[in-house]
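REQUEST ID: PR-0412
SUBMITTED BY: lab tech R.K.
PRIORITY: routine
TASK: structure prediction, single protein chain
INPUT:
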Amino acid sequence: MSALRRASSGGVTLRRRAGTLLRLPAGILLVSWQYFWRITALHRSETRGDEGDLPPPIPPDAVDERSKLLSDGVGPMFHRRFRVRIVGARMSAGELAATVAANPNRAAPWTVAVFVKTRGERGKLRVGDEYRVQMPGPWDGPVRVVHSGPASFRLGTLRGHLEAGQIQFSARATGDGALEFQVEAWSRAGDRMAALLYSRLRVAKEIQFNMWVHFCLNAAAFSGGRPSGGVVIETRGVPAGLCRDADGR
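STATUS: complete
OUTPUT:
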């Protein structure tokens, strides 16, 4: 059996799960407070998506029985982009992406997400590495690295995750001396309960919205630069029917 198929050694302890549950009220309150008092401009748009919004394929050697693919989810898919323009950064695009890859917690808001590495060497990121993203609620978010490039990396969801899909973190030089940092997600609810919280009540959706906005702003801060023009958030909803064959199964 390959190393990829062996069970992860980083299980979730009762103490860790209790701590995550206890963070739920505080996490929601803090994120809500930050949302209402944020002075950074947010530019939101929501449009209807199509086949062009489906995620890139996951390499076959990064998929096993623990993978939770897009076709395993429920309901519509949301293709979301969160991007921030950074001026005055002291890092290159590659350095910024590598810093986030080495330790995602530098950018993640601790009130709603803590990345715990359960497979792979600390401080490095390779395809096949795994994390458990501890979130304020009854779910943890197990993910696996399915792509790693010079200035980007992408994670795919595993069984037990609130969602089914992928998320990519990337940075690029804009050609005028600035950088652009982006979080791009292709996701749908992982089960019917998650669909209720995500699509109907919009609780999980709004918590994640604020999470990735803060992630972008934190990345801008530790790059040594500052955000210019606010954070742009684009959401495109893709009908469930288009997701059935998205993984080529």
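NOTES: DSSP finds four helices and nine strands in the chain.
REVIEWED BY: pending
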